[in-house]
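Q: How would the structure tokens look for this protein?
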Amino acid sequence: MNKIIIDNIDLNTEESDEAIEMLQKASLELQENDEELWFHEWNNAVDSLNTATFLLKKESHKKWKWITICIHHAFYSICIAVQTNGNFRNVLNYNNNNKPYFSSTNGIDWIKSEKIDLSEYFYKIKWNEIIYSVELEKLRIKFNEVSAENDNEVSTETVNVDFNDKNLIGFQTVLARVMDPKVFMNRYEGQKALELTNDEMQNIIRIHLIRNEYVHFKPQLNVYNINQIKHDLQTYLKCIYFLVFESHSLIHLNHEEKILLKDNIEILEKAINA
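A: Here is the predicted structure in token form.
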């Protein structure tokens, strides 16, 4: 069942399925055109993992710089695809995430998000029930307005009451969302949220910081332990596998893309553990 962003109405299920079919048709047409470079949220991740696998052939140790960037990007892309699932509005940043989100299943009872810091760099989402207040009444009124405008087809929703920007959500934000079992990873029957141990979270953080140093390089001497990088990348591959094959989230990923992802994950895991 689709979530509804109140200030920027989501597509209903029928329209979303039609949009997906159009996207898939357009993608097939683009594949046949060698003059076009094309990506969508699914093959973006597939391409990054495929590139990481290709780079394994290189003999230089510097290949681990690019493999790190590719696997980090693949994980980020998979997280985005999980949260998108046919509607790009689900992964736009409406309020820079400094303000809370609000969610309801019926437009009457509401919960409010709270950011719980896991480290200096990452956080998780906690949801608290909103007791009767002016804020609650505003949410109910807004919900009723949106329902009326859409012939009462609004079912459940994740809401930002106030928004400015419409940029893609960042790595920290989408990671918090795929780890949230209450709202963001509770859109479909049987959907499962990603769970990370403290050690696995540290692995995620280390690779994220190294990736940022690679991509936003400052003139200096950087030295990284390759074995540590390999160790930490195992967590990324584990997370990618879970989100693709065990979270029951990527309902629009086709069979060929799943096979390609699985093959690349297995090849990379074997190389990393060698």
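The chain has a mean pLDDT of 79.

The two ends are 43 Å apart (CA to CA).

Upvote if useful.
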